[in-house]
Amino acid sequence: MALIVKKFGGSSVATPEKIRNVAKRILREKAFDDRIVMVVSAMGDTTDDLIALAGEVVDTPYQYTREMDMLMTTGEQVSIALLAMAFRSMGHPAISLTGAMVGLRTDSAHTKGRILGIHPERVHEELDKGNIVVIAGFQGTDAAGNPVTLGRGGSDTSAVAIAGAIGADTCEIYTDVDGIYSADPRIAKGARRMREITYNEMLEMARLGAGVMQPRSVEMGQLYGIPIHVRSTFTSEPGTIIREEYTVEEKSFIIRGVTHDEHVSKITVLGVSNVPGIAHKIFSALADANIDVDMIVQSIRSAESNMTDMVFTVATIDAEEARMVVEGISSEIKASAVAVDNDVAKISIVGAGMLGNPGIAARMFGALSNAEINIEIISTSEISISCLIKGGSVKDAVNRIHDEFFPTEA
Questions:
Q1: Is 204 annotated as a binding residue?
Q2: Would the annotation count 390 as a binding residue?
Q3: 189: annotated binding-site residue?
Q4: Which residues bind substrate (predicted)?
């Protein structure tokens, strides 16, 4: 007997036919005594459609974050109800539950909430009744009972957190690709599917733009020690297992993957004094607004005048709010202007193998130089190197860097 959490994304349940196909697959593959919990996203582009609908009512709907969460949580409620109906029509008992019903508690950071805890008694009760439990991903409630969504890719986080809370044997993430690749296979011609990847490497890849997994979902898997199996909705082939350590022998590459993120914006705070406390004021204000900052560069414009520009990146969805926050303190920090550039992208390489291997950065920069792609910002961690480039150069950059580290004859 296995206790398994299976998460299906929006493309997997985009139509009534696909919903029925998911139900048929689960019942076909289910062993007699398996206990199944499903976490489901909204159908297809439903979330985007709801956001667009809000945009037709008000110009800047995200200024009303609580109401946006009230709106967006409806998408998952549609898909879970339909899937539960599909199971029941096929003769298997099932029940749909919202995030609130399964005791998923969050903080009050609307549209980007964090899970504080899960009280899954209702889940166990329904499993004991023989139900397949179909849970709305992407959502929970705060202490006051308000709906809170978990940000982009939040259904993955819901699934892994629920798997940990109920003590599941594994968490399967079904998506429109058949595993984790060395680069986005829609962009890189020679992208390779991995059989396994460690939590640390996958976390870094997800943080740097590998959209197949949300970073917090990988963190949850590592926290609870839950193996995460990323596999295709449309085939029965095994995908990629995310776990603590490798258990199979694979050809060793210095890096594990090339990632890209086109959902970033560059913020430049012009003409501030190069004195202690300025960076603290800027980034404290952004933190108070719950805006994550990634790459940061401070450059001296003039040694004589002791003036500097502060440059950093944020998610594009936060760019306008970030600009408003910094402009709100511009008089205090004596900034001459705040500029936003949305035509940028972040390209990264990730891999524990780069530790102790000198020259990795030079090879990455050389690949970009050969493609005549300029680097605007560079940042590094122990197992990654990231470059900010112009947005229109992404495809060329990914392929040049991937070819450098994953040559076709390898």
A1: no
A2: no
A3: no
A4: 47, 76
Helix (H, G, I), strand (E, B) or coil at 269: strand
- 7 is known to lie in a ligand binding site: yes
pLDDT value, residue 248: 66
The answer to whether the beta carbons of residues 142 and 148 sit under 8 Å apart is: yes
Angle at CA of residue 314, ends 99 and 72, nearest 5°: 25
Q: Is 186 annotated as a binding residue?
A: yes
Output the CA–CA distances (angstroms, integers) from residue 58 to 51, 75, 183, 319, in the order listed.
Answer: 11, 20, 38, 18
What's the pLDDT score for residue 302? 62
Mean pLDDT of all residues in the chain? 93
pLDDT of residue 410: 42
Q: Are 190 and 155 in contact (CB under 8 A)?
A: no
Ligand-binding annotation for 405, yes or no, is: no
- The angle, 0 to 180 degrees and rounded to 10, between the axes of the packed helices 16-29 and 65-89 is 60
Task: Tell me the two tokens of residue 278.
Answer: 């300025």
8 is known to lie in a ligand binding site: yes
The whole-angstrom separation of Cα 6 and Cα 40 is: 8
CATH fourth-level superfamily of 3-175: Acetylglutamate kinase-like (3.40.1160.10)
Determine if residue 76 is labeled as part of a ligand binding site. yes
Q: Which of 396, 407, 344 is nearest to 368 (CA)?
A: 396
- The domain spans of the chain are 3-175
What are the structure tokens assigned to 335, written together?
A: 């900034």
9 annotated binding-site participant: yes
